[in-house]
C-alpha cells in the first residue's frame, strides 16, 4: 500500500468511525499529518469513487453515503483488517470466484486473498448445484486461506464461516438469521446465503482452502428465479431495505478475521456455542439424509468437533456428512 492509499484508508476510517458526526478539516489534517488542502483533495477523490461527502463550513466533513460501486479500492478504503483482504481481486464478471481463487493460488496468492465479482456466469453451489449470481445483486466472494490445521478439521472452517455470516447479518440488518445445518443461512424460513468450501490437501497438511460465500442481498422477489421463489430470499425482500454491498463485505471481512484468528488460537469450542445459538431447528424432529439412508430423528445440535448430532432409533448418532430437511 503506498502512502497516498494508506492516508486515504485512514481518512475513511476516521470519517466512518465518526458516523453522523462531522470532523473538522483541521482535525483531519492533524490526525493524518497532511495539509488542509490535501484533505480537500482526498475528499474530491473519494467523491469520484462514489462516496457522497458533505462538507459544511465551521463543522467539517462527514460521509452521507458509501459507494455502491464495487472495486478493490472501495473495498479496501476504510477496511479495518490486518491480513484479510490486503489483496482483493475484483472482477466485474467471471464464471466463478472459486475458479479465480484456485487460479490465484497457482500464481502465489497469499493467505487472506479475497476474490469478489459483481456477477458470476457459472456460480457453483454445494453438491454440484448452480448458484444464481446476478450482477450487483449480492455478494459473490471467495476467500483464500492457508490454515495450519489438519485436513480432517477443515469442515470446522465451514461451520465457522456460517457463524461469521449469521453474526454479521444479525448485526448489520437486525434480521434474525438462522444457520441450517451445515452452513446455509436462512431468514424467515428461506435460504439467503450459502457457503462452499473447497480444499487442496495432502495426507496430513492443508495446502489451501477456498471459502466461497454467496449472499442474496438486493434482489426483489421477481429477481429470484421462479423455481426458487418458495425456498430462496434476499436481505432486501426480508427487510424491505436495500443494503450497501461494499459496507456489508467490509463488516464480514472484519468479523471473519477476528473470528478466524480466535478459532486458530483457541479451537472450535467457542464456535460451537455460537453455531448452536443460531442453529435452526435444534431440538426438533427433522429428516436426516445420508448417502445411504434417510430417517426422522431429533436434531440435537453439534458435537465438540462440529459433527451433526441426531437421534436414530432412540440412539445418538454423530454424522460428518448429511443433509437435514423438514
Ligand atoms: C451453497 O449453498 O450451495 C453454496 C453456495 C456458494 C456460492 C458462492 S458465490 C461465491 C463463490 N463462487 C461460487 O461459484 N460459489 C461460491
TrEMBL record:
Q: Which reaction does it catalyse?
A: biotin + L-lysyl-[protein] + ATP = N(6)-biotinyl-L-lysyl-[protein] + AMP + diphosphate + H(+)
Instruction: List the CDD domains.
Output: BPL (cd16442), HTH_ARSR (cd00090)
GO MF annotation list: biotin--[biotin carboxyl-carrier protein] ligase activity
Residues where biotin binds = 120, 191
Look up the EC number in the record and give it: 6.3.4.15
- Cite the InterPro entries for this sequence: aa-tRNA-synth_II/BPL/LPL, ArsR-like_HTH, Bifunct_BirA, Biotin_CoA_COase_ligase, BPL_C, BPL_LPL_catalytic, HTH_11, WH-like_DNA-bd_sf
Q: Does the keyword Transcription regulation apply?
A: yes
Q: Which residues bind DNA?
A: 25-44
Q: Where is the BPL/LPL catalytic domain?
A: 73-264
Q: Which UniProt key words apply to this protein?
A: ATP-binding, Biotin, DNA-binding, Ligase, Nucleotide-binding, Repressor, Transcription, Transcription regulation
| Key word tRNA processing present | no
Per its UniProt entry, which superkingdom is the organism in? Bacteria
Cited HAMAP family: Bifunct_BirA
Q: Which family does it belong to?
A: Belongs to the biotin--protein ligase family.
Q: What does this protein do?
A: Acts both as a biotin--[acetyl-CoA-carboxylase] ligase and a repressor.
User: Which protein, by its recorded name, is this?
Assistant: Bifunctional ligase/repressor BirA
Source organism (scientific name): Virgibacillus byunsanensis
Query: Upper lineage ranks?
Result: Bacteria, Bacillati, Bacillota, Bacilli, Bacillales
Name the gene behind this protein. birA
